[in-house]
């Protein structure tokens, strides 16, 4: 376990076997939604880093946008994907990090991200996870587990955090619109707050959980490699604290 006041890295929280199960789910989903590219008799020996697989999924996303979106969305709610994560006991990491009991936790969401090379359109600026859900007022009552399935570094756009910003409230953020023709709304940290903290790019070994607080300022770096960065993101919150959304709304 690597440790810092703003984050901790818990090594090998996803087994190679479970990583392979998720990979097989992605391949099966690609075969279903785009059989013209993904044939059932093909073998991808290097799994997430297999060059043939990477080239095919880049082609899939580029030339079959609606089908790719359908495949991507279906994986997020797949029983197999969520089962693998629950059986990996990620809640035990969270109980250590937040110093709470398991029955105090809620799971806000489980997501498999696919960050493609040189894709700036779908990147997020500096943001706080708790500015989106507002489940807990206090940053340290929520945790975000960022789990890359490949080794991450500056080249493939690993996570960047603002050291010390974990004590901030979600009032540091506001809504912005990004883009013109395909505008999308993001909730980003105001510039005046970003200046207070230094940035740190954190290399994280594959299958390890880079664990941060829900209010820390963070963003992914740009992926300038020739591979896709596959990352699992799981978010937890403390439901038995008085700043929890449903409790504080009673006041």
The proportion of residues forming helix, as a percent range, comes to 25-40%
Strand order of the largest sheet: 1-2-9-4-11-3
| Rough outline | globular
- The secondary-structure element order is EEHHHHHEHEEEEHEEEEH
Total helical elements: 8
User: Unreliable stretches, pLDDT < 50, 5 or more residues?
Assistant: none
Radius of gyration: 18 Å
Could you give a short description of this structure?
It contains 8 helices and 11 strands. With about 250 residues, the protein is an alpha+beta fold.
Can you lay out the helices and strands and say which pair or pack?
Blueprint (H helix, E strand, L loop, with lengths): L1 E2 L3 E4 L5 H18 L17 H13 L1 H12 L2 H9 L2 H9 L6 E11 L14 H4 L8 E7 L10 E4 L10 E6 L5 E6 L1 H4 L4 E3 L7 E5 L4 E3 L8 E10 L6 H4 L3
Antiparallel strand pairs: 1-2, 2-9, 3-11, 4-9, 4-11, 5-8, 5-10, 6-7
């Amino acid at each position: 376990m690597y440790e810092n006041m703003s984050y901790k890295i818990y090594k090998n929280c996803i087994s190679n076997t479970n990583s392979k199960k998720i990979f097989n789910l992605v391949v099966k989903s690609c075969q279903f939604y785009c059989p013209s590219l993904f044939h059932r008799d093909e073998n991808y020996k290097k799994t997430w880093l297999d060059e043939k697989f990477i080239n095919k999924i880049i082609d899939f996303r580029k030339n079959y946008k609606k089908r790719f979106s359908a495949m991507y969305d279906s994986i997020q709610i797949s029983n197999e994907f969520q089962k693998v994560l629950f059986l990996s006991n990620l809640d035990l990491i969270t109980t250590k990090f937040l110093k709470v009991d398991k029955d105090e936790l809620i799971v806000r969401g489980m997501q498999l991200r696919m960050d493609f090379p040189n894709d700036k359109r779908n990147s997020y600026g500096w943001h706080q996870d708790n500015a989106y859900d507002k489940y807990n007022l206090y940053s340290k009552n929520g945790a975000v587990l960022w789990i890359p399935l490949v080794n991450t570094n500056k080249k493939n756009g690993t996570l960047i955090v603002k050291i010390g910003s974990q004590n901030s409230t979600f009032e540091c953020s506001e809504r912005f619109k990004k883009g013109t023709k395909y505008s999308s709304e993001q909730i980003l940290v105001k510039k005046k707050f970003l200046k207070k903290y230094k940035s740190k790019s954190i290399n994280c070994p594959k299958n390890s959980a880079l664990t941060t607080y829900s209010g820390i300022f963070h963003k992914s770096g740009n992926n300038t490699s020739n591979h896709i960065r596959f990352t699992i993101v799981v978010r937890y919150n403390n439901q038995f604290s008085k700043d929890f959304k449903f409790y504080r709304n009673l006041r």
